[in-house]
Amino acid sequence: MTDYPLLFEEWAPLDSPWAVWAKPVLFWPLDGVPPRPLPPDTLPAVDWAPPVQSGAALIIDMPGASSVLEGLALALRGYRPIPVFNGCHSLGGLIDVEPIVKALTDGITVLRSQRLAGDAPPAFMIDSRRLEAMRKVAPGDFDNRWCLFPQDLPSARHLLEAGIRTVVLRSQDCQNDMEHVLVRFQMAGLQLETAIPGSVGRTPLRVSKPSGFRSAWHRLEVLLGLRRNSAGGFGGIVPEPSQSSHRYG
Cα separation of 62 and 44, whole Å? Predict the structure, then answer.
């Protein structure tokens, strides 16, 4: 069986200053199997990524396990992949996180082989499907949808003090919750770039202030549509309609 707490410690080692932003919710004890080495052709090409010495932080906002595989490929280039998956695991969940768990488990063999430097720049891995339910939400479903908040990633000040001058978003598009994060970076003077899967290289990115920017009401509205889990992260059973009127879906 895989020891998930220890696995999390390997993905978020104490010598990395970026480990504090790693989310542990997918690493708590599950029925698993020992890691199996990934086939050599599993990892994608990451020619879009800037050199590891360039002062860049990367945000990999891609669907499911593809985000982990991208992060592992970047580890081969010297980046530290940081898991920022914040939706809990459950059979029948509205978002299938099993492929992510498998990629994190099997991918540990790649991570172990690299012996990354403690100060390796970060590549934050996020699931772009975080708010996409696989089916219509119904009472009794385990709703593990989640949303990215600015505090889920380092502040612009923290990045700048660490020598980061550029943030690259690797994603098909910039979702609303990501806009709330990136516009703060932009306002602080960080250069933003995007690397769209299927395209060559990187292009400058300009983000407009999203609706509800820095509004406590916006945050409250988002949280009312999601279900926090007592063990951390997001995930809970959808109640009967009579139990609550403030729910998305």
Answer: 13
